[in-house]
Amino acid sequence: MLEFTVEDLSAEDIERLRAIYEPLAVSVRALVDATIRTEVDAETVAAVKADIDAATARLRSKQIDGAFGVKRTPSGRSISWGNAVIGLRNPTAPPLVIHRDEDDRRWADFHLGAAYEGPPGHVHGGVSALILDHVLGEAASPDAKPRFTGSITVRYLRACPLGPLHAEAQITRVDGVKTFVSGHISDAEGITVEAEGVFITPRWLRD
Amino acid sequence: MLEFTVEDLSAEDIERLRAIYEPLAVSVRALVDATIRTEVDAETVAAVKADIDAATARLRSKQIDGAFGVKRTPSGRSISWGNAVIGLRNPTAPPLVIHRDEDDRRWADFHLGAAYEGPPGHVHGGVSALILDHVLGEAASPDAKPRFTGSITVRYLRACPLGPLHAEAQITRVDGVKTFVSGHISDAEGITVEAEGVFITPRWLRD
């Protein structure tokens, strides 16, 4: 059973917390990129490492047990700031900001840099799968109730370059507890990766 | 065309570079975790952020253009330190250390923490797909020549908890330029996610 914590946070509380913690994640994202690409000498690396260890210790002086979780407000708003794809407090997330069209199509424009590399200069195929799993999952849940991936098939049409990218997904059909969704990732030249998924309504959300 | 840089690095050079840069990535991985989980006050966060920005600037004072790439030594060794799954210099990679059995089965034991969360306390379904894509891809390339994912289907049997996990994959059949591979992720209770993939030998590696 998954625990979605309900917390009595107002819109102002959420904004206040976001203003405190989001800029830290933005900075750590830049540090992640620099860590992969730096060519500074051993002495500088060791000095930087010591500073980072000190920063980590200060942050850990007061921290939650375990992962961030998913918090819900009484008004039904969902806060997934630790999420691996959209988490604004998670430096490993690009993070995607997912938009919703009138017809419930979901889409995001985003940028993938050095941290997402697989083949040289290109997006790791699994990173494309990660992003498509998330965007398809959001498209599968137009009522803001979570649906979980039953299965997903990802087809790679060509190597996807690092840089600015677009992802989108929409429901193709619903059959009982199963929601079928398809989507893709594209660069300026067109589609690079396509996906189809079957998403399942969890038992505790079925009528 | 993908550029695999050939660099004339000896085993000693590689070890020296690894000893300089790997500990930095280990520290930044811990910082990523602390960034997601910290509850320290706004003042402390701002001070830590300033220290991190300074650290990033020092690392960026000398850095490569673009992503890390994949370097090959004349002896055929491949260095993928920026890779999103196995990159030892990439703080967003767990990183997986992939072992090879006598029968060419590939496997890895690894730990996923707060940075890989999707549903509360559980691995993001897309992260499982990311890891399986990589492990299946390694299994598809027993001769150390890269093969690229044509398609992969991932089936989610149950929610996969954050914590210690195992992944493995092996070739089921080869048909011309197509290599068929299957694999799974498991926790202490058994398999959580299965995958099947078709991997393609790139044109420039075909005989």
In whole angstroms, the N-to-C terminal distance of chain A is 17 Å
Mean pLDDT of chain A: 94
How many domains comprise the coordinates of chain A? 2
Order of helices and strands of chain A: EHHEEEEHEEEE
Q: Helical stretch count of chain A?
A: 3
CATH homology-level superfamily of the largest domain in chain A: Hotdog Thioesterase
CATH architecture of the largest domain in chain A: Roll
Care to count the β-strands of chain A? 9
- The helix fraction of chain A, in percent, is 25-40%
Task: Name the poorly predicted regions of chain A.
Answer: none
CATH class of the largest domain in chain A equals Alpha Beta
CATH names the topology of the largest domain in chain A as Thiol Ester Dehydrase, Chain A
Rg of Cα set of chain A = 19 Å
Topology, element by element:
Two copies of one chain form a homodimer.
Chain A: E1 4-6, H1 11-37, H2 42-60, E2 70-72, E3 78-79, E4 99-100, E5 106-112, H3 125-139, E6 148-156, E7 163-175, E8 178-187, E9 190-200
Parallel strand pairs in A: 1-2
Antiparallel strand pairs in A: 2-3, 4-5, 5-7, 6-9, 7-8, 8-9
Description of the structure:
Two copies of one chain form a homodimer. Chain A is an alpha+beta fold. The first copy, chain A, folds into two domains: 1-95, no CATH class; 97-205, Thiol Ester Dehydrase, Chain A (Roll), CATH 3.10.129. Chain A has helices spanning 11-37, 42-60, 125-139; strands spanning 4-6, 70-72, 78-79, 99-100, 106-112, 148-156, 163-175, 178-187, 190-200. In chain A, the strands form two sheets. A six-stranded antiparallel sheet of chain A has the order 4-5-7-8-9-6, with helices on one face. In chain A, strand 2 (70-72) and strand 3 form a beta hairpin. The radius of gyration of chain A is 19 Å and the shape is flat.
